[in-house]
Amino acid sequence: MNQLFGQPSNFGSARRITAPFQVQLGLQYQLGGPNRAPMATSMGFIPGSKEPPYTADQIRDKLRKLSKDPVQVILVRKDSIALTKDQVAQLEAISARFRAQSDSALDPVFDYVMKKGRGVDDGQLGSRLSKATPQIQRMLVDADAKARAILTPAQLAMIPPPTGARPAGMGAPGAAGPAPAPKAGGAATASDLQAKKAAGGGGGDQ
C-alpha cells in the first residue's frame, strides 16, 4: 500500500474499509505552434496578435487587391497618352461598373472573413474564393476589352498589352487559357504548305 495516500479508514460497522485511491487531473496548453491558416494570413485577412480586428473597409480593400481594376492601367497614363475628357469619363464609368460587380462577386468571401475574424479557415476561404474567381475573370476580360475599344491605335500602342484574366492570388483550377502562339521553327500547317505551293509553284506532288 502506498502510504502517501493515507491509511484505510473505518467509518463504523455499517461501512466497509475503503482503500486509498488516486485521482489524476491534467490540463493541456498550446502556446505558439504552426499557423493554422497560412493562406488567409498571407493574403492579409488575419490581423497580428497585437492588432485590433480589421474593419469592414480594411477587409474590402484587401479583397479589391485580388482583382485589380484593368481600367486603372489606362487611367494612370491619361496625360502621357493624351486621353480626352470624353475618354476619361467613359473609362471611369467602366471602372466603377467593374468595381461594383467584383465587390458583389466577392461578397461571400467578405461576409465569411468579417464573421470569422481570427478564426478564418483556409479550406472555407479557398472554397469561397474558387467560386468567385471565374466570375471575376470574365469581368476582367470584359472591362479590359471595353476600355481598350475606346482608345485610338496610337494610344493603344502606348499602354501595356493585356496580361491575362486571372485575378491576382486567385487561382482557377481547370480554367482554360488562350491557345499558345505557334513557335518559331515549328511544324507548318496544311494551309501554310498550300500557300507555299501556290507561291512557288512546286514543293509538292504534281
Question: Keywords, please?
Answer:
206 residues; mainly alpha; 8 helices; disordered C terminus
Detailed description of the structure:
The chain is an all-alpha fold and 206 residues long. It has a domain at 38-162. Helices cover 45% and strands 0% of the residues. It contains 8 helices and no strands. Helix 2 (56-64) crosses helix 5, helix 4 packs antiparallel against helix 6 (122-150) and helix 5 runs antiparallel to helix 6. The termini are far apart. Mean pLDDT is 76; it is low at 21-31 and 171-206.
Number of strands: 0
Summarize the helix and strand pattern as letters: HHHHHHHH
| Proportion of residues in β-strands | under 5%
Largest sheet: none
Number of helices: 8
- Shape field: elongated
Return Rg in Å: 33 Å
Structural class: mainly alpha
Give the mean pLDDT: 76
